[in-house]
Amino acid sequence: MTGPPARRRLPALRAPAWLGAPVRRLVSAVAVLWAAATTAYAALLLAPGDTVDILVGDGADTPEIRAQIVAEWGLDRPEAVRYLSYLGRLLHGDLGRSYQLQRDVGEVLAGQVGPTVRLTLAAAAVGVVLALVLAVATAGRSVWPRRIVSAAELVAVSVPQFVIGIVLLFVFSFSLGWFPVSGAADPQALVLPALALGLPVAGVLGQVLREGLERALEQPFAVTARSRGLSERAVVARHALRHALLPAVTLTGWFTGVLLGGAVITEALFGRPGLGRVTMQAVSAKDMPVVMAVVILSAAVYVTISALLDLAYRLIDPRLRSA
Amino acid sequence: MTELAIIRAHSAPDPAAAAPPLVAVEDLRVSFPASGVEAVRGVSLSIAPGECVALVGESGSGKSVTARALIGLAGPGAKVRASAFRVGGGDALTFGPREWRRLRGRFAGLVLQDALVSLDPLRTVGAEITEVLAEHDVVPRQARPERVRSLLEAVGIPDPEVRARQHPHQLSGGLRQRALIASAIAAEPELIIADEPTTALDVTVQAQILRLLADRKAAGTALLMISHDLAVVAAVADRVLVMKEGLVVEEGPARDVLTAPRHDYTRALLAAVPSALQPSTSGPSVSPAPSASAAPSASAVPSASAVPSASAVPSASAVPRRPDRSHGAAPRGPVLAAGGLSVAYGSRRAVDDVSFRLHAGETLGVVGESGSGKTTLARLALGLLAPDAGEVTLRGGPWSGLPERRRRPLRPAVQVIAQNPLDSFDPRHTVDRLVADPLFALPRRRRRERAIELLGRVGLPPELLGRRPRELSGGQRQRVAIARALAFRPEVLICDEPVSALDVSIQAQVLDLLAEIQAEDGTALLFISHDLGVVRHLSDRVLVMKDGRVVEEGDAGEVFHHPRHPYTRELLAAVPRLPE
After folding, report:
1. Which among A226, A229, A295 has a CA at the least distance from the CA of A37?
2. Could you report the per-residue pLDDT of B164-220, keeping only the tens digit for each?
3. Hey, which CATH number is domain B336-574, 3.90.550.10, 3.30.470.20, 3.90.1150.10, 3.40.50.300?
4. Which domain of life is it from (chain B) (predicted)?
5. Would you say B265 and B93 are in contact if contact means Cβ atoms under 8 Å apart?
6. Chain B environment of A230 (Cβ under 8 Å)
7. Numbered ranges of CATH 3.40.50.300 in chain B
8. What is the ipTM of this complex?
9. What is the CATH number of domain B23-272?
10. H or E element: which one contains B258?
11. Which of A286, A313, B193, B419 is most buried, taking the most CB atoms under 10 A from its CB?
């Protein structure tokens, strides 16, 4: 073999080809996390006013706390050292300290992760299950059910989550009294928030799945499958669905964002504990260390999800495995 | 329009007449009320056990819809009617979904065109075949892997255990078509419906698949073969039905229909097939006589025959001609020449030490199967790909070696016509814009005049200027592509499979148009095709490519009549032939 054919390409900023796909994946994941950490740090530096004032926020402003901040953030040392020690701290899993709450940020967030994970997973389940059921039931079927479901999906997508939440609260809690109005004590309290958060996801995912199913059902392989005597349901379940999943999987990254962002509002609306509520409180109290930690944590969640998506793609589409 | 008379040839006493036919349908009509299309308008057809019946016709003739209606798969929203309709011993007029499903796969297997998309690309070949075995409970579960293995073996796939675990994209075109056939015959159907089963294949692979289908027929399976290619049909069919606009216009024993056609349309179809073995004539050649019956499709678009034929194009005097190069000061060397061209993709050499010379007014044909490096060669000639070794020169000066900034002013001289203009045209542009874009130097009014002139040269009326690519027929699109290339007054036209996507009659018209333009302008053609007949028809000289190398080169007549290289002989032997 002579020279590599890639030599004619413009030099691009990407990992060289000899690195395997998983290694490249890891490198880019680390790069994203580093960028998120640095962005959070830059926000701290660029915010108007003295860095110590910003880190104190609306908390108690005593000379002891100020001295503590200067020591912990290395504010008496050169810029480069400060930045590197900040990154080093993060590498050790230390997210810093909230001077308002007088607790470690890691500790503050850890207590809130559970309820938020429960809420987002439940909402994701609502979204995926509803979308699958509706798409499979209406793809390529008669016009009217398809139109009605399609319109319902459009409504679910376009109405903000808090409006859906308020409507759900009015109907099922205040009027019917089926579910508790707030709190996270019993599993029943999870139902309405999960619906409020998951319905918009179901709307978009349903549209995408149905479109994918309908496209797959027109493909020659679907004709071949029917020519073997398969029922329409079997053609959908065994052939078309897998093809329809590919574009839906792409959307998973997007709806992770919707769920995380939506959790802030939904938790506040339903009076649930969780990361969303902590974030909201931190933002309104200008508790910068907590806000920075939330930024980095969200980036970590995104990176993990997108790595999993990559894996899912390869599982679903064998053509990507050999490529 | 007037109904076309059905001509039935007298057939010899049918040996299979004793057994009841597998399929017998009278006056089959299939319409699609949603789009108002009547795809099949009264077809009668019967298939005896062990018989091979062929349905031939051009795209839009209704042949596929007819065949699929026989297994209840005419398509969503199709309305199927018939005065009598018996399939597999039952009255199909009374069939519900359950009865159809029992017949599909078990009574009749379907083989479609391209196994890359006709087998589920996300599932293994073995899973696809197992699906048939399971659906009809052909063998018990534990015996299925063994049955898959023996089926793959029966269709001539080596290493069946390995192949069963692979996905369609991991198999070559020929192997996956065999796998598709294996899945169609898994439940031992009495009838195989093969819809263009070899159209996506190279000629040598096509010959193998046709042999495989002939073997199945010899084993007693009836075959309904749908094809646009009369020569392919000639290889296997007992009886031929010629379809046009949803009707059967001629029917009879294959030999009679193909050697002594009675209907004008059959004659036109046969005449339009370019042959690899017959020398091209210098005259008006392959186009069938423009007759009302040669209208190629029932689509809403005005068909090509409604368009002034290529010979009615304004004569050369009306079209501003490029200065005659023969009187120019330039020496009469080759317009485009290549020496020692090599390109590698990774470790694979796509083009390996290829040289050629192309003179003004000359056509150099390039033939080869898929993967032989034809398209890479086209990209090199166009200056779109830099060779790893060797050089392309234009008019004796540098071409491939130039930096793009200095090559751009020269690009008008070398133009391309691609296989599928739908892919190479911006779908949102009108014909006016597509053709006139290269003329940006002209003032607006002059540009439109020139666009109309160019359309005239390719035999299209000015009314098409406002149309978009999707609103044109295949032949019209390819004519627009030629008009666009001519706008630059090119010296070299690189034609990469320019007629492969077209029906034979349209194909013939486009080939004639290219020959005519060449005669008028002295344009040099680099003509690339997998179809030996098409290349034979147009070329002065021919390069035969295999695995990136030129294995044979020479005068077209010489290469086709006295091939020296074994591969050329193999290619020529594999070309399906019409009976003499």
Report:
1. A295
2. 999 998 888 889 999 999 999 999 999 999 999 988 788 888 888 999 999 999 989
3. 3.40.50.300
4. Bacteria
5. no
6. 101, 131, 135
7. 23-272, 336-574
8. 0.76
9. 3.40.50.300
10. helix B254-259
11. B193
